[in-house]
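User: New here, please read:
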Amino acid sequence: MDAHASLKNYRQSPRKVRLVADLMRGKTAERALVLLAALPKRASGPLEKLLKSAVANLPAGRPAPGEYYISSIQVNGGVVMKRSMPRARGRASQILKRTSHMTLELKRRASNT
């Protein structure tokens, strides 16, 4: 019994989103939600929403979200939009506007009894 959720084409670079995702990995769903609420990073809002979506995708008759932990969270690169910026002498430099694809998976902790 596990659940997963994904978010695609989030307009922030994967490098910045991975900083927040690495903090969440291995924590329980409740603990990760508390962590994300207090974290002053822009990616914490969408990742909190993604985690809530994964909790909502748990099967019916499920135990409390505290019994589920984040077994895997991946942040991969998405579509890169290319823009240009005017420079000196009539030239132009390329600007890469990166996006991220995020996937989160919850698993139930094995009970010791």
Remarks:
- The longest helix spans residues 44-56.
- The beta strands are 2-10, 68-77, 81-86, 92-97, 100-108.
- The chain has a mean pLDDT of 90.
